[in-house]
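From the methods appendix. Each design record in this collection lists the tokenized structure first, followed by the designed amino acid sequence. Records were kept in a plain field format so they could be parsed without special tools. The example shown here is representative of the layout used throughout.

RECORD:
FOLD TOKENS (296 positions):
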């Protein structure tokens, strides 16, 4: 068999259209503030893409660039100002941060109502206990694609390979909320291949290139590959790289029923869901019911 490809790029484009339509109907324009510390090239590209897509959906983009040697106190002071700014409905601090700054302290300084990354302890706790929350963007994107592809998830056996606070743990919480039976696995799990083969939904978010082998995948399973890894590609020229996921894709397509490609799968959904979260935050701040189909 050959797996059906789940086109995250097209799905994300549809979300952005729905976000733009919702923004157009509001009397106030949602505002997203992105804070970038330092000059990491990958982070700069990512922030530019966020700003571009924010503007394209009719939102206001506020970009704050700080030097690599900025103090923690200066960054926290900026967060305080953004928390108090009524034109800012979402705040995102681009990670990673330099070593002199406590990332946890900075993240948890963000107003929970403006935490569009869904990383504050309050939003994590609300998600875990089943209360309304701003959900981390990557897991939310995975959930929306799973719902679209499978229709309903209730009763399905799901395995999440990866236990990070950013993807693995919130992904498990979202799948539990959908009434899946969920197992969180990781690189030290005993007989991980057998566990993966038991999954009807397999989410790979372990951060290791092509870690999940094709014969680890049960026949007909739906595979969500969250990984984005760069490997050397000398055949393309000196210093060139290729992007691969956490799943050995060429092997997996012979076993899976459906799979997200890398690139073009989960990646585009992350920014689309950031925009959806910003819209949700703006609606809630103004006593408006946010669009349910965009918030998980």
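DESIGN:
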């Amino acid at each position: 068999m050959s797996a059906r490809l789940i086109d995250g790029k097209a799905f994300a484009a549809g979300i952005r259209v729905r976000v733009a339509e919702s923004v157009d109907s509001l009397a106030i324009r949602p505002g997203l503030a992105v804070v970038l510390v330092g000059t990491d090239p990958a982070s700069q590209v990512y922030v530019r893409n966020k700003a571009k897509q924010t503007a394209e959906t009719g939102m206001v983009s506020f970009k704050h660039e700080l030097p690599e040697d900025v103090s923690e106190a200066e960054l926290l002071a900026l967060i305080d100002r953004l928390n108090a700014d009524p034109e800012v409905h979402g705040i995102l601090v681009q990670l990673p941060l330099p070593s002199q700054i406590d990332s946890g302290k900075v993240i948890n300084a963000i107003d929970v109502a403006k935490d569009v990354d869904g990383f504050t302890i309050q939003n994590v706790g609300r998600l875990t206990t089943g209360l309304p929350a701003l959900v981390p963007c990557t897991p939310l994107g995975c959930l929306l694609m799973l719902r679209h592809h499978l229709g309903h998830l209730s009763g399905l056996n799901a395995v999440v390979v990866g236990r990070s606070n950013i993807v693995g743990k919130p992904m498990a919480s979202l799948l539990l909320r959908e009434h899946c039976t969920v197992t969180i696995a990781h690189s030290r799990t005993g007989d991980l291949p057998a566990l993966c083969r038991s999954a009807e939904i397999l989410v790979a978010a372990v951060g290791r290139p092509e870690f999940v082998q094709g014969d680890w995948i049960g026949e007909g399973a739906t595979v969500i590959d969250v990984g984005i890894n760069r490997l050397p590609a000398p055949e393309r020229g000196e210093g060139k790289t290729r992007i691969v996921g956490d799943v050995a894709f060429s092997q997996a397509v012979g076993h899976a029923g459906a799979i997200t490609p890398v690139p073009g799968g989960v990646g585009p959904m992350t920014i689309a869901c950031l925009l959806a979260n910003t819209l949700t935050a703006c609606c809630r701040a103004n006593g408006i019911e946010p669009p349910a189909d965009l918030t998980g």
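APPENDIX NOTE: The mean pLDDT is 95.
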